[in-house]
């Protein structure tokens, strides 16, 4: 049994194979290719622990073997929530090597997100950390076990004697030898998470072929070397630090990935210095903090060669400060978990580097910039971005209706981003039309939060909109029409109680007597955003 996804039409898959983009190799090849030559090279540094490629593969194989002996394998899905630690990658490769298709939830996700993912994939396996608030007692696990019969649970840091201990399985060889059986390379390897703009988060099925190509191409564009070292300080599960070129790119060339729990500058600076880190992927809000912190000597960051910045709008003013502050190059990255990733080139002129988000990385990334009438606009004019290509998916998981609204008949994914394209193909992201808030690169689907707000007995209408924030880029304001005035802490406590991630809680609330409406009778969010940003500036 395989996991469903919307396939590329034959003429496209044929072309992508002919051009060598799709090589019909499983993603696990990223690790197995180092089994001989680079097996002594350090693959992961995580605090005091380090793993060479041999140990890394051995641990992934051990875990895979144990899971196989519990009857878990091809056709099964897994819900995984692990923080930034070596086990994240060990688990990832272990699952892929036996054909189990995981969703890697972000560590910041809570009950509502995880329940929703589980409802979509009906997992056979749950792997999580006992120190996470959701798993410090058994309530949520019990709930999941009741709903998904036969669910196997592995928890990190439980009593090593317990059957559910991840560490216990990693510590000993399984009784039976492992039979490697990844899913076919043309099939789904794992799910990425969509930032989303709808009430329920959408899952993005990524195949081995498409994802592997995006990793290899990213490695080329970024000209990685096996002696490079990548600091993974953003959430490891996110598409950007995973594959652009991210940890998988560094593993692919046999280089080293150094873990940080988060992008807090002082701790990251210590790690960079201690482990001679050369590359780091950041979001704009983190760069702003890094620039402030770097002004206070002594910081020895001379090993840094490249700081990548992406995930949200990055001001030209801040971009210009990166090379002189850190003595290294800057690369802008504009990407999406659905696929397409654009990079500025390492040799770009200052103008291209500071004022654009680069060019889509593949010659076969097809891009259309569309006006309100659906027609392509001239170069230099603003329009919405639609794209298709060898690593951009053709549909969300089991979302027939929604797919019909964001993927067109020709298979282009309509990103909801407003961009300007220059004659030489560079993209500049200037805004968005999708109903999403980009809070320091963490994406909030307005509708998801609004639905929860409306479940409060006193709230009559709710609209979540972005307002400008100097550090985060955007924060969220909930406009409410309500029978009584609830305080911001009360609203946040209510939403927390609903079980959503902290970053989705509104930063502000505003009460209004009635919602402004558009001519077709929808809440006029453009008006709300404008009036709010004007009145608070
Ligand atoms: C990355 O992926 P997602 O899926 O979390 O978010 C995608 C959305 C884009 O559609 C766009 O709205 C925004 O995030 N975005 C940017 C941006 N990079 C992403 N907006 C402005 N400037 C940028 N440089 O965020 C992602 C995935 C892979 C690589 C990099 C980022």
Automatic annotation (TrEMBL):
It catalyses: salicylate + holo-[ACP] + ATP = salicyl-[ACP] + AMP + diphosphate. GO terms for biological process: siderophore biosynthetic process. It comes from the Bacteria. Its EC number is 6.2.1.61. PROSITE patterns: AMP_BINDING. Residues 32-397 form the AMP-dependent synthetase/ligase domain. This is salicylate--[aryl-carrier protein] ligase. The lineage of its organism: Bacteria, Pseudomonadati, Pseudomonadota, Gammaproteobacteria, Pseudomonadales. PANTHER family: LONG-CHAIN-FATTY-ACID--COA LIGASE, SURFACTIN SYNTHASE SUBUNIT 1.
């Amino acid at each position: 049994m395989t996991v469903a996804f919307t396939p590329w039409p034959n003429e496209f898959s044929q072309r992508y194979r002919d051009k060598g983009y799709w090589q019909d190799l499983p993603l696990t090849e990223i690790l197995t290719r180092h089994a001989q030559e680079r097996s002594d090279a350090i693959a992961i540094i995580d605090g005091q622990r380090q793993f060479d490629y041999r140990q890394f593969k051995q641990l992934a194989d051990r875990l895979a073997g144990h899971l196989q002996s519990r009857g878990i394998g091809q056709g099964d899905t897994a819900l995984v929530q692990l923080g930034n630690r070596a086990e994240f990658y060990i688990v990832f490769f272990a699952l892929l090597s036996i054909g189990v298709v995981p969703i890697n939830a972000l560590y910041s996700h809570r009950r509502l997100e995880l329940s929703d993912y589980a409802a979509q994939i009906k997992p056979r396996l749950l792997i999580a950390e006992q120190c996470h608030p959701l798993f410090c007692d058994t309530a949520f696990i019990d709930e999941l076990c009741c709903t998904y019969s036969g669910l196997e649970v592995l928890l990190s840091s439980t009593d090593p004697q317990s059957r559910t201990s991840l560490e216990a399985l990693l510590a000993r060889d399984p009784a039976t030898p492992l039979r490697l059986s990844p899913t076919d390379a043309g099939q789904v390897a794992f799910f990425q998470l969509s930032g989303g703009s709808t009430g329920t988060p959408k899952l993005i099925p990524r195949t081995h072929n498409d994802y592997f190509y995006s990793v290899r191409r990213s490695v080329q564009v970024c000209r990685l070397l096996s002696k490079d070292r990548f600091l993974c300080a953003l959430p490891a599960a996110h598409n950007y630090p995973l594959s652009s070129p991210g940890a998988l790119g560094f593993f692919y060339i046999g280089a080293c990935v150094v873990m940080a729990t988060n992008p807090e500058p002082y701790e990251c600076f210590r790690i960079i210095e201690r482990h001679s880190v050369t590359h780091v992927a950041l979001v704009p809000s983190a760069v702003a903090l890094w620039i402030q912190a770097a002004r206070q000597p002594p910081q020895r960051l001379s090993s840094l060669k490249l700081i990548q910045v992406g995930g949200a709008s990055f001001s030209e003013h801040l971009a210009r400060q990166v090379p002189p502050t850190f003595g290294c190059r800057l690369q802008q990255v504009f990407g999406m978990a659905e696929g397409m990733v654009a990079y500025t080139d390492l040799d770009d002129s200052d103008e291209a580097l500071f004022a654009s988000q680069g060019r889509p990385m593949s010659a076969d990334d097809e891009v259309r910039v569309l006006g309100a009438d659906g027609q392509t606009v001239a170069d230099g004019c603003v329009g919405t971005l639609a794209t298709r290509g060898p690593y951009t998916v053709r549909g969300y998981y089991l979302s027939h209706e929604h797919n019909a609204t964001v993927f067109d008949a020709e298979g282009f994914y309509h990103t909801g981003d407003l961009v300007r394209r220059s004659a030489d193909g560079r993209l500049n992201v200037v805004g968005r039309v999708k109903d999403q808030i980009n809070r320091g690169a963490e994406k909030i689907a307005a509708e998801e939060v609004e639905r929860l707000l409306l479940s409060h007995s006193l709230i009559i209408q709710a609209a979540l909109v972005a307002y400008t924030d100097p550090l985060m880029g955007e924060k969220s304001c909930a406009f409410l029409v309500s029978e009584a005035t609830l305080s911001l802490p009360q609203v946040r406590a209510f939403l927390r109680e609903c079980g959503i991630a902290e970053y989705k809680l509104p930063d502000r609330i505003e009460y209004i007597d009635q919602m402004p409406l558009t001519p077709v009778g929808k809440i006029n969010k453009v008006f709300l955003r404008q009036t709010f940003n004007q009145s608070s500036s």
